[in-house]
Structures are given as structure tokens and as C-alpha cells.
């Protein structure tokens, strides 16, 4: 089969591989829609995970089941399914501790395009199919549903880890597709005021659509000053980091209240250390939590999130700025994610 791969650091291209084999609990899926991700960019062009040779990229897909193992109960060939980017081993001890993202070790629930071939191929393999796939609701398009693989669960995970509650003030640093879903997730959880930090107009307009009350452009000066001025010098309750660099943590600490939560979902692709200001962290006694999380995988989470689309509580179509037909366009989509033209939020490729 054909697949679009990381050949080595800084180099991508098409390769031929054997079609993956299906284990007794697994499924083989043919993609119907995929979306390239900023994480693929960190992996290939920043070497954030280290070198990978001829590893098929991609982890965001909706597809049609072509084969299932003899122990799979709820899925059959022909079913249309959403596959989360994270596909944990559900029997691992980490999963029993509520940390399925790290089943088998740090970040090891993240298999596609990390520790095994990803979804940019004619076929791909899903481990533990009953636990790691969800049926596509009949009234949700494959293009929309592919946003459920990673963008919606990651942005919402940012809001969940921040424990956003009704009436709160939240700052979201970075409003690419992930940050936009952090805005939407905070809005659904009842945040009253949401500061959205980004510079591109297309993202700013989408942030307003998803519930941002204030737009902050990091290219127009210090974001902490801009937020403090707009918020009449009051600190914010929560900060979600979904973009920017390591400096975002220092900025977050400058605007957060005592007991506030800084929730990072940004994939920190470069730099070595995060600076924590002793003073801004309340001399170590400010009860300020800093948490960073990989999105949760699993069928149940996917079913809940797809309910939001099926019942029109969440409209992800605003994220889809570039649509391509045909597998050969995966490369174009990925290069868009790398170059981030001003009109881009997220590309989707249908097969
Ligand atoms: P994008 O690159 O599309 O968005 C990044 C955002 O950050 C943009 O709004 C950009 O602004 C903004 N930004 C850039 N520099 C700064 C800065 N110095 N200060 C403040 N804001 C800044 O990324 P995605 O939304 O696609 O992904 C966000 C991150 O989430 C990535 O690192 C990705 O790898 C990661 N990720 C993490 C997952 C997880 O499970 N934790 C899963 C999926 C993705 P603008 O472009 O408008 O100038
Ligand atoms: Zn992704």
C-alpha cells in the first residue's frame, strides 16, 4: 500500500509498505477523511520526538472498517468510524490509573505517527478496536468528524484540565484549531469572559464565533499588559496554552490568580526549560497549578464529543478553511500546516 511518510528528519515523501496485519482485537481501516496537524510539523521539522525513518505520518482520520479481528464485538467491515489520535492499551496499569494517554509509558497511548505507522495511507491499523473507535453519527459529515480525532478533544482537554467553571475569566494563548476548540470548550463549560491570543484575522474571527469576548494580538505588544489593562488589573481564573513558545508559561503566571490553573496542551517542540518566576508563583505558596496534557483517547470520549456535533451544540465547520479531494493532496495539506498562510485554520483531505 501507499503511504505518506517521514523519511527522516526534515524529509517527507510517498513510500510503499505492506498492508498492516489485523490482530484478534484490532481493526484495519481505510481512510475517508484525514487532516494534517501541527504535531506532524513538530515531529518532522523540529525532530521533537527524535528521528523516525519511513514512518507513515498522520493521526487524524475518519474511515471505513475493512477488517476486524475475531474478538471485536461492536464493529464490522463497512462501518464508518471516527478514530481518536490517541489509541491507548486499555489493559495497561496507567489506564487503570486514569492515565490511558500514557499506557505503557510516557505518551505511549499516542501510537499513530509516533510509535507505529499513521493514517496517511491506503489502510491503517487500530489496536483494541472496541475501545478505540466510535461509530460516525449519520448526520455528521466525514469532514466535520475528522476534527473529532484531535482538534476538539485536545482543545476541550485544555478546558477540562483547567477546570473551567461558569462565570470564570479564561485566557487562551494560541488560537489555531486547538486553541479555538479550547475557546469553544471553555465557552460550553460556562466561562464568562474569554481572552483569545493570536494574530491572524481568520483565527480571531473564528475565536469570536466560538465565544471569545476579547481578542489580544501578541504582535502588538506584551500580552500580559494587554490582558491586565482590559481586565482592570484583575487576574484571570484560568489560562489555557495552545500556542506560542516556552515564554507562554511566564506570561500565564503573570496574569493568573492565586489558586488558578495553567493548562497546557501545546506540543513543546523546542527549547529546554520552562522558567517559573518565584514571585509570580507566589513564592512557591500561591496554590497555582501548572498541568500539561495529551488529549484523551477512547471510544466513550469520542461518542460524547460526536454527540455535540450530532445535536448541533458545536459547529466545527469554521475550522475547515482548506478542503482537498484525493490522497495525493496530503502533502499539500501538510505543507500548509507547516507554512501557516494567513487564511488557514485547518485543511482536510477526503479520499
Ligand atoms: P497553530 O500553529 O495553528 O496555532 C498556534 C497559535 O499560537 C496561533 O494562534 C498563533 O498565532 C499563536 N501564537 C504563535 N506564536 C505566539 C506567541 N508568541 N504568543 C502567543 N500566541 C502565539 O497550532 P494548532 O492549533 O494546530 O496546535 C496547537 C498546538 O497543540 C501545537 O503545538 C500542536 O502540536 C499541539 N497539539 C497538542 C495535542 C495534545 O494532545 N496535547 C494534540 C494536537 C495538537 P497566529 O498564527 O495567529 O500568529
Ligand atoms: Zn493532530
Written account of the structure:
- This protein folds into two domains: 2-150 and 295-350, Medium-chain alcohol dehydrogenases, catalytic domain (Quinone Oxidoreductase, Chain A, domain 1); 153-292, Rossmann fold (3-Layer(aba) Sandwich).
- The protein is built from eleven helices and 16 strands.
- It has helices at 38-45, 93-96, 129-132, 142-145, 151-161, 177-188, 201-210, 223-230, 247-255, 299-310, 330-339, and strands spanning 2-8, 11-16, 27-34, 55-56, 61-68, 80-83, 124-126, 134-135, 169-173, 193-197, 214-216, 236-241, 256-264, 289-292, 320-325, 346-350.
- Strands 3, 5, 6, 7, 8, 15 and 16 form a seven-stranded mixed sheet that branches.
- The longest helix is centred in the middle third of the chain and has 12 residues, at 177-188.
- The mean pLDDT is 97.
- The chain binds NADPH dihydro-nicotinamide-adenine-dinucleotide phosphate (NDP) and zinc ion.
Structural key phrases:
six-stranded parallel sheet; alpha/beta; 2 domains; Quinone Oxidoreductase, Chain A, domain 1; binds zinc ion; 26% helix; 351 residues; seven-stranded mixed sheet; 11 helices; Rossmann fold; binds NADPH dihydro-nicotinamide-adenine-dinucleotide phosphate; 16 strands
Short description:
By secondary structure, the protein is of the alpha/beta class. It has helices at 38-45, 93-96, 129-132, 142-145, 151-161, 177-188, 201-210, 223-230, 247-255, 299-310, 330-339; strands at residues 2-8, 11-16, 27-34, 55-56, 61-68, 80-83, 124-126, 134-135, 169-173, 193-197, 214-216, 236-241, 256-264, 289-292, 320-325, 346-350. Bound molecules: NADPH dihydro-nicotinamide-adenine-dinucleotide phosphate and zinc ion (ZN).
Amino acid at each position: 500500500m501507499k503511504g505518506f511518510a517521514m523519511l527522516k528528519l526534515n524529509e517527507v515523501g510517498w513510500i510503499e509498505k505492506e498492508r498492516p496485519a489485523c490482530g484478534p482485537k484490532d481493526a484495519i481501516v481505510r481512510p475517508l477523511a484525514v487532516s494534517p496537524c501541527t504535531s506532524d510539523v513538530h515531529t518532522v521539522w523540529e525532530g521533537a520526538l527524535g528521528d523516525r525513518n519511513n514512518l507513515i505520518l498522520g493521526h487524524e482520520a475518519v474511515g471505513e472498517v475493512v477488517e476486524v479481528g475475531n474478538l471485536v464485538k461492536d464493529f464490522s467491515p463497512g462501518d464508518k468510524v471516527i478514530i481518536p489520535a490517541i489509541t491507548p492499551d486499555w489493559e495497561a496499569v496507567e489506564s487503570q490509573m486514569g492515565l490511558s494517554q500514557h499506557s505503557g509509558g510516557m505518551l505511549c497511548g499516542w501510537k499513530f505517527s509516533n510509535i507505529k505507522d499513521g493514517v496517511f495511507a491506503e489502510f491503517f491499523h487500530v489496536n483494541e478496536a472496541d475501545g478505540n473507535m466510535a461509530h460516525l453519527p449519520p448526520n455528521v459529515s466525514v469532514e466535520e468528524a475528522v476534527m473529532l480525532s484531535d482538534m476538539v478533544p485536545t482543545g476541550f482537554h485544555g478546558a477540562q484540565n483547567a477546570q473551567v467553571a461558569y462565570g470564570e475569566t479564561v485566557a487562551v494563548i494560541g488560537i489555531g484549531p486547538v486553541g479555538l476548540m479550547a475557546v469553544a470548550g471553555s465557552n460550553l463549560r460556562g466561562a464568562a469572559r474569554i481572552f483569545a491570543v493570536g494574530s491572524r484575522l481568520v483565527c480571531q474571527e473564528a475565536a469570536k464565533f466560538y465565544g471569545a469576548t476579547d481578542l489580544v494580538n501578541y504582535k502588538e505588544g506584551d500580552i500580559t499588559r494587554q490582558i491586565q489593562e482590559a481586565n482592570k488589573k484583575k487576574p484571570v481564573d484560568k489560562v489555557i496554552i495552545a500556542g506560542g513558545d516556552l515564554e507562554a508559561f511566564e506570561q500565564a503566571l503573570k496574569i493568573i490568580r492565586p489558586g488558578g490553573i495553567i493548562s497546557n496542551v501545546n506540543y513543546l517542540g523546542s527549547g529546554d526549560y520552562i522558567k517559573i518566576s518565584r514571585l509570580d508563583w507566589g513564592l512557591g505558596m500561591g496554590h497555582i497549578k501548572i498541568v500539561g496534557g495529551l488529549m484523551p483517547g477512547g471510544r466513550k470520549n469520542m461518542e460524547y464529543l460526536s454527540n455535540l456535533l450530532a445535536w448541533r451544540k458545536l459547529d466545527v465547520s469554521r475550522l475547515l478553511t482548506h478542503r482537498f479531494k484525493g490522497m495525493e493532496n496530503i502533502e499539500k495539506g501538510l505543507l500548509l500546516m507547516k507554512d501557516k498562510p494567513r487564511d488557514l485554520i485547518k485543511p482536510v483531505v477526503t479520499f
